[in-house]
TrEMBL record:
Keywords: Membrane, Transmembrane, Transmembrane helix. The chain crosses the membrane at residues 12-30, 42-64, 76-100, 120-140. Residues 162-241 form the Signal transduction histidine kinase internal region domain. This is Signal transduction histidine kinase internal region domain-containing protein.
Length: 352
């Protein structure tokens, strides 16, 4: 659709731009001995006609798009011919308009005055058409730029979604392998508890697959899934594994990426609790502050234990997911302080 006719604001600005041109034509007419009534009447009607006649430049612009590699010479003949045709139409309408207005009282001399002004009107019409044609090329360039930005934005969103789906696809096998290792370790020691773990694992996987189809869930749903997982691990570790929950009620309704805390808790168990003979307590905190969700996973570690292999994978995936969704507004920090490994997450609040 025509870029000016499709936008009222643009059309209004375009017509307003003709006002100085109409005033200039009226002044030129008056300077040639025309009365102000004659000059103003003809200039106003001719300017309004030209404003809409020259909108046809858009179709020439579409038919002959600019090619930076080909230069301007290829289109110059077509532009000149179109300008001559439009200038002729504009001048012809001016002569007809002068004859029609000459029938009115006080304007009877217009038909005789228009003759000497015809060459000037023809040149002016050509120049105005070329100016409007240039405006349309500028509008076409703006539209192409906006379309390119829109397509680029869509591609960025698609790439981000694909990356997040790939990350979630990597996480699910990771959960399963760790859980199966826990069951394998328990089958020879306590088959009954191993069977109980299988039932809990089945329930956990069913819930995780259902939630995994959604890009985000309420924090309360994420924590419920986490409780199921911890119930499985507490069968294995018994009294060695304790969990302290510090969740603000208002934070439970906030939206968080699905399976966000799962890899952090797995790391806390595998590389923290499992390495300590006496076990320890995993502390999970959730709160809202200044329009942000603040999450923390904290667990004791053995300061003398060698650095585990693959400890950073879960944390790296969590960081990538948050940055993919929230960009620079997401903040992730991890480190060991006073024998405690702590991971802090902060990102904007999203309510369902």
């Amino acid at each position: 659709m025509h870029p000016l006719l499709a936008n009222r604001a643009r059309l209004g600005a375009y017509l307003l731009g003709w006002a100085p041109l109409v005033a200039l034509m009226a002044v030129l007419g008056a300077s040639q001995g025309w009365s102000w009534l004659e000059a103003a009447s003809l200039s106003l009607a001719l300017g309004l006609f030209g404003a809409f006649l020259f909108l046809t430049a858009w179709y020439l612009c579409r038919a002959l798009p600019l090619d930076p590699k080909g230069g301007l010479r290829a289109h110059a003949p077509a532009w000149i011919i179109a300008a001559m045709v439009m200038g002729g139409l504009w001048t012809g309408f001016a002569r007809f308009l002068a004859w029609a207005l000459g029938l009115l009282p006080g304007l009877h001399q217009l038909p005789t005055r228009i003759g000497p002004a015809t060459p000037v009107l023809a040149v002016m019409g050509m120049l105005l058409y070329l100016a409007v044609l240039t405006l349309h090329y500028l509008l076409a360039a703006v539209e192409r730029s906006r379309e390119s930005e829109r397509v680029e934005q869509e591609l960025r969103v698609l790439a981000r979604d694909a990356e997040l789906k790939a990350l979630r696809a990597q996480l699910n096998p990771h959960f399963l392998f760790n859980s199966l290792n826990s069951i394998s370790a328990l089958t020879t020691q306590d088959p009954a508890r191993a069977r109980e773990m299988c039932v809990l694992l089945s329930d956990f996987l069913r819930k995780s697959l259902r939630l995994g189809e959604r890009p985000s869930v309420r924090l309360s749903e994420e924590l419920d899934l986490l409780r199921n997982y911890l119930a499985i691990e507490q069968i294995r570790f018994g009294a060695r594994l304790a969990v302290a929950w510090e969740v603000a009620p208002e934070a439970e309704q906030a939206e968080v990426p699905t399976l966000l805390l799962q890899p952090l808790v797995e790391n806390a168990i595998k590389h923290g609790i499992a390495q300590l003979p006496e076990g320890g307590t995993i502390r999970l905190r959730a709160a809202l502050a200044e329009g942000r969700v603040e999450l923390r996973v904290e667990n004791p570690v053995d300061p003398d234990a060698p650095e585990p292999q693959g400890l950073g994978m879960g944390l790296r995936q969590v960081k990538q997911r948050l940055q993919g969704r929230f960009g620079t507004q997401a903040w992730v920090e991890a480190g060991i302080r006073d024998g405690q490994h702590r991971v802090d997450l902060r990102f904007p609040v999203e309510t369902p």
